[in-house]
Design goal:
The chain is mainly alpha-helical. The protein has a single domain (17-338), classed as Farnesyl Diphosphate Synthase (Orthogonal Bundle). Helix content is 71%, strand content 1%. The chain has 17 helices and two strands. It has helices at residues 17-22, 26-39, 47-53, 61-69, 78-102, 113-117, 119-137, 143-165, 174-199, 204-231, 234-237, 243-246, 252-260, 263-273, 281-290, 293-312, 319-338; strands spanning 106-107, 110-111. The protein has a two-stranded antiparallel ribbon with strand order 1-2. Helix 4 (61-69) packs across helix 9 (174-199), helix 5 packs antiparallel against helix 7 (119-137) and helix 16 packs antiparallel against helix 17. The chain is globular, with a radius of gyration of 20 Å.
Length: 340
């Protein structure tokens, strides 16, 4: 367990995922150039809209996983650049659709696509990004890349559908919650690591281990994101916060809170999640702190990361491993910043 904010020792500067990605240097430049080139493939009437989504301000976690899992040396591998662009386009499409469903106004510190272009145009823009990602994936000489990306895209969409259909209900178990985040978030982390290691021609055993690490990191990251929805600062996180309770999305912090609350208070939380009462963010945030929900959720994040790290342990001599593990360290540092 990390030291609390009240510790007398000065906290170490927090790392973030953008800083990890920036260390990849030439890989960053090659990916950005590849993404910029894709804009010309869109119809002239929507290029400005595509350009708005294909920006270079994101954390680029999934491309980082491609590059790090396929790391052999400093040389930029064009195949890794292309598959990183494919996966980032899929991710950007999911963000466009997420913001429509969440009615979010801010993403990456600026207006969301839905706020800029309206929901009708934004949903089709997300579809266009998905389609172009698959078009790019189909250009690989092997069908494995396109097949893997198409399957992952379907699984991500399935996760979003399941979550959307369950909004406004409290009939959700922990198993249901983990099933959704495995699909909607961890899947792209998993396929990023799998394809990075595969295209770099590592052994099948390492490809499987890298994929496992990616999946577990993805689960941990989504739980962190759900925690940040309550404990983050909008200016620093760069997106609209507090949307989970307002939209009736039952995440792990809220599941833990529901278990901890007395029966009468739990009924009030249920009423807020089901739309029968106005969400009281200040009250719920106070209760999250009162019942030490942050610490409970942090423990689960740690458990998920340890599973992934154990999968990589037999391959400690492989070039990607030490670099992949920096992402776990970075996530731990990000969690420490959230600590109330």
């Amino acid at each position: 367990m990390k030291p609390s904010a009240s510790s007398t020792s000065a906290p170490a500067p927090a790392l973030d995922f953008a800083s990890v990605f920036q260390r990849l240097g030439p890989h960053v430049a090659a990916l950005d150039a590849c993404l910029r080139e894709q804009i010309e493939s869109f119809e002239t009437e929507i290029r400005d809209m595509a350009d708005y989504c294909i920006d270079t301000s994101g954390k680029r976690i999934r491309p980082s996983l491609v590059f790090l899992s396929g790391w052999r040396n400093e040389t930029v591998n064009p195949a890794l650049v292309k598959v990183a662009a494919v996966i980032e386009l899929v991710h950007l499409a999911t963000l466009v659709h997420d913001d429509i469903m969440d009615e979010a106004d801010i993403r990456r510190g600026r207006d969301t696509a839905v706020r800029s272009f309206g929901p009708e145009a934004a949903v089709l823009l997300g579809d266009a990004l998905f389609a172009h990602a698959l078009h790019l994936a189909a250009q690989f000489p092997t069908t494995e890349v396109c097949s893997a990306v198409a399957e992952s895209t379907r699984r991500v969409c399935a996760g979003e559908i399941i979550q959307t259909m369950r909004r406004g209900t409290t009939e959700i178990s922990r198993a249901d919650y983990f099933r959704v985040i495995d699909l909607k978030t961890a899947e792209l982390f998993r396929v990023s690591c799998r394809l990075g290691a595969r295209l770099a021609e590592f052994s099948d055993a390492f490809v499987d281990a890298a994929a496992t690490y990616g999946r577990q990191l993805g689960i941990a990251y989504q739980i962190y994101d759900d925690l940040a929805d309550f404990f983050g600062e909008e200016a620093r996180i760069g997106k609209t916060l507090g949307t989970d309770l307002v939209s009736g999305k039952l995440t792990l912090p809220l599941l833990e809170l529901g278990d901890a609350l007395p029966e009468d208070e739990r009924a009030g939380l249920v009423a807020e999640l089901t739309g029968q009462a106005k969400p009281d963010m200040a009250r719920r945030l106070g209760q999250l702190q009162e019942f030490a929900i942050f610490e409970r959720v942090e423990s689960e994040i740690e458990r998920q990361m340890e599973i992934g790290e154990e999968a990589l342990a037999p391959f400690s001599d492989q070039p990607p491993v030490a670099r992949l593990l920096t992402l776990g360290s970075t996530l731990r540092a990000q969690i420490a910043v959230l600590r109330p």
